[in-house]
Sequence to fold (140 residues):
Amino acid sequence: MPSNFYREIINDHNLRPNHKHPLEGPSLTLRGVNPSCGDDITLLLKVENDLITDGAYVGDGCAISQASADMMLDLIIGRSKEEALRLADIFLRMIKGSVSEEELEELEEAAALEDVSHMPARVKCAVLGWHTLENILTIP
Ligand code: ZN
Fold:
């Protein structure tokens, strides 16, 4: 697991998520599954004129997958689709280990998952929510 400070952020989002709940009337719904760990989430977004006005997720999985989805929603609610995709790109590059300090700051608490780039077995857990976000926003 990551260092203590980051572990606390991750545990906190896992145990007391801000966005893990059903959402009435979502404009977009997409399920994402990581069979190697058993992570299974469904992302729900409300999008109006390219702006993500609300979002939530439901499902189950390990602490990293659930915390990552929760931190992602903290970051993208209130942003445009384009901005959300840009942040997803930064997050996915962070996990591959190629991100600048400025970009890392933009990820706010989600930067706590940077150490996952050194834990190959957990990479799919960390990126599940973000890949689901990319897919949900780029499906025609
Ligand atoms: Zn997992």
About this structure: The pocket of zinc ion is lined by residues 34, 37, 39, 61-62, 64-65, 125 (CB under 6 Å).
